[in-house]
Amino acid sequence: MDRISKEREKQLSVDLWIILLTSVIALGIYTVLGNNINKFIKDDSVNIILRVLSIGVFQFGVAGLGSVIVSIIRKDSFLNHGLNTKNLIKALVLSLVFCIPEFAFRLYIGEIHKWVPFIKVNTTAEILSSGFPWNVLGMLITATCWGFFEGFNYVIIRDKLSELMPSKYKYFDWGALICALVCILIHGMIGITPKSIIEMTVTMFLIYGMLIVRKITGNAWGCVLVFLVYWNAFD
Questions:
Q1: Partners of 234 in the beta sheet?
Q2: DSSP string across 45-61
Q3: Pick from 112, 158, 140, 147: which is nearest to 228 by CA?
Q4: What's the whole-number mean pLDDT along residues 178-189?
Q5: pTM for the whole thing?
Q6: Which pLDDT belongs to residue 1?
Q7: Among residues 87, 94, 211, which one has the least CA distance to residue 155?
């Protein structure tokens, strides 16, 4: 396994710091302005598109903006990170397969009653009840911020971590593992009860699995699909 150059190592570290700091800044701003933002989002006298855009900006800031900034700085096409047609069907199917344990767990504990993409995003129900074209436009914004960019953000981070810390094993990947750990930390899934441990395990399996699929197939669309049709989709 060839070691990357010191220059490339430094470049990858800078990229990861940019992504991290962008997310932290966006989250910090949201934390400070959170009460006012939440009041604005619930104000039905304001057009729903303006409201979903306002919260979508912060979602994109936390998961997406940093990766876009780095890609622009490095002139690095998204195609280089798996947004292509190589092994497309295989990547889509295998990524969804890794959702099965998490789905079975949610079903067993009674947390799944209906499937609606992005239903757990707090503006989705109102968007869907809005008339055309607001419902279509609102869902496009939601799918872009909470679907495409959140899923692809994991891909960018994993790719850079894995290049920085390569593994000689086909099914073990440091980048995928770190992303899975970060996911359960962000979503507060750490616990010591049997339920918490199972939830943590199946969620890590999902995130790690979809990123391993990206590694093996060379295609990242499966990661995007998971966040478009599965993540935040059950109520």
A1: 115
A2: TS-HHHHHHHHHHHHHH
A3: 147
A4: 88
A5: 0.93
A6: 59
A7: 211
DSSP state of 78: G
| CA–CA distance, 203 with 129 (Å, rounded to integer) | 31
- What is the C-alpha to C-alpha distance for residues 66 and 72, in angstroms, rounded to an integer? 10
- Per-residue pLDDT reduced to its tens digit, 10-63: 999 999 999 999 999 999 999 999 899 999 999 989 999 999 999 999 999 999
- Report CA-CA distances (Å) from 174 to 62, 161, 219, 225: 22, 7, 18, 22
Q: Which two tokens stand for residue 219?
A: 């295609």
Q: Which residues are within 8 A (CB) of 86 and not within 5 positions of it... i.e. 6 or more apart?
A: 217, 218, 219
Place of tokens 């990947």: 173
The long-range contacts involving 88-94, CB below 8 angstroms and separated by at least 24 positions, are 88/219, 88/221, 90/217, 90/219, 91/213, 91/214, 91/217, 91/219, 91/220, 91/221, 91/222, 92/221, 92/222, 92/225, 93/222, 94/209, 94/213, 94/217, 94/222
How many CA atoms, within 13 angstroms, populate the side-chain half-sphere of residue 177? 8
